[in-house]
Amino acid sequence: MDEHGAMERALQLARRGWGRVHPNPMVGALVLQGERVVGEGWHAEFGERHAEPIALEAAGEAARGATLVVTLEPCNHQGKQPPCTDAIIEAGIQRVVAAMADPTPAAAGGLDRLRSAGVDVSAGLLEAEAARLNAAFVHAASGARRPWVAVKLATSVDGAIADGSGASQWVSGAEARAWVHWLRAGFDAIAVGSATALKDDPSLTVRGPLAPRVAPQRVVFDRKLRLPLDGALVASAGKVPVVVVAAPEQQGTSKAGELTAAGVSVVYAGSTAEGLEELHRQGVRSLLVEGGAGLSSSLASDDLVDRYYWIQSPLFLGADALAAWSLPAVSLQASPRWHVVQRAPLGDDTLLVLDRT
Q1: CB within 10 Å: which end of the chain, N or C, has fewer?
Q2: What is the Cα–Cα distance from 32 to 100, expressed in whole angstroms?
Q3: pTM for this model (two decimals)
Q4: Catalytic residues
Q5: Which helix (H) or strand (E) holds 38?
Q6: 3-class DSSP state for residue 97?
Q7: Cα–Cα distance between 214 and 335 in angstroms, integer?
Q8: Are 88 and 56 in contact (CB under 8 A)?
Q9: Arithmetic mean of pLDDT, 294-298
Q10: pLDDT tens per residue, range 186-226
Q11: Taking Cα atoms as reference points, which of 338, 333, 327 lies closest to residue 301?
Q12: What contacts 135, CB < 8 A, 6 or more positions away?
């Protein structure tokens, strides 16, 4: 296996930390002796051992004089774990190939430390792929004042999220719905608009084989505080946090008091963008938006979406169906083009992942 193939494998390993390591980044590492893989590892749990020392331990004495391929610059500071640079130097690694530099000041500097210790260092192999894998982590390290926002959509081929009667369960198939539960596990919070909360009465919890280390908060953008007190979200607020983002004029109303008494956190914002900033102040660094059309359109119109997870199902719902978006007209020349980063089958459905260009 060459270094390129090893980095592809390291990225695959890193993804195994999804839902278990955030807010830390997902990291994978391989040790190559020539073209032979002699050790591999990944960061599996927040606060526990990093990918590099796990891979080095697996390699044992074969690590001496070998190449370490890792998806993120090895850390050079004492946190919950000791510096990975120390382990690399002590193992006698001759060369380190990193996909990307660490964007956090506290952890950066590992490559310089290794270089000064005589290790041959290279960075930038599959950098874009590594950055996409940890997009929320990179976004948070940039000093952004809002969460990294991903919108998940399940639509018909003709772009509808519900039929003419408003029925939306289920546009997508069972395999796609199971995948969405895996996706939820990697986010700090899951959001819907008030119309979706009223119509579908969702629980917005993670159900499936992957149990998130911390259950995502549930968020409802509900300007008029229409969320019913007897719905699934309010009923379970004592188990998994629920945050309602309301208009400022709702502050002090009886409904706000009732929701608060039921264990719901009510915050106030004059716009969707201000609501995101308020969520960020409360520690939400990544937000998965699951509907509906109004909230998704508001985020898109205000240029607040960083990624789309678009599940397209092989059916047509026709002219009376509810469209996924309601956006202002824009010319072909003025419309930004998104970057397709993944296409994958989910049963009979198709996943299309789009990132900002």
Answers
A1: C
A2: 19
A3: 0.93
A4: 52
A5: strand 36-42
A6: strand
A7: 38
A8: yes
A9: 91
A10: 999 999 999 999 988 999 999 989 999 999 999 999 999 99
A11: 327
A12: 148, 306, 307, 355
CA angle 80, 17, 132 (to 5 degrees): 105
Query: Which amino acid is located at 50 in the chain?
Result: H
Tokens of 1: 């296996």
Q: Report the alpha-carbon angle 197-198-202, nearest 5.
A: 40
Residue 164 has pLDDT above 70, yes or no: no
Instruction: Tell me whether residue 303 is exposed, middle or buried, using C-beta atoms within 10 angstroms of its C-beta: 0 to 12, 13 to 18, 19 or more.
Output: exposed
Whose tokens are 């819907």? That residue is 192
Map residue 322 onto helix, strand or coil. Answer: strand
Please identify which residue in the block is written with the tokens 């774990």: 81
Of 194, 335, 329, 197, the residue nearest 275 (C-alpha): 194
Q: What is the 3-state secondary structure (H, E, C) of 204-226?
A: CCCCCCCCCCCCCEEEEECCCCC
Closest by alpha carbon to 137, among 239, 26, 228?
Answer: 26
Percent of the chain with pLDDT over 70: 99
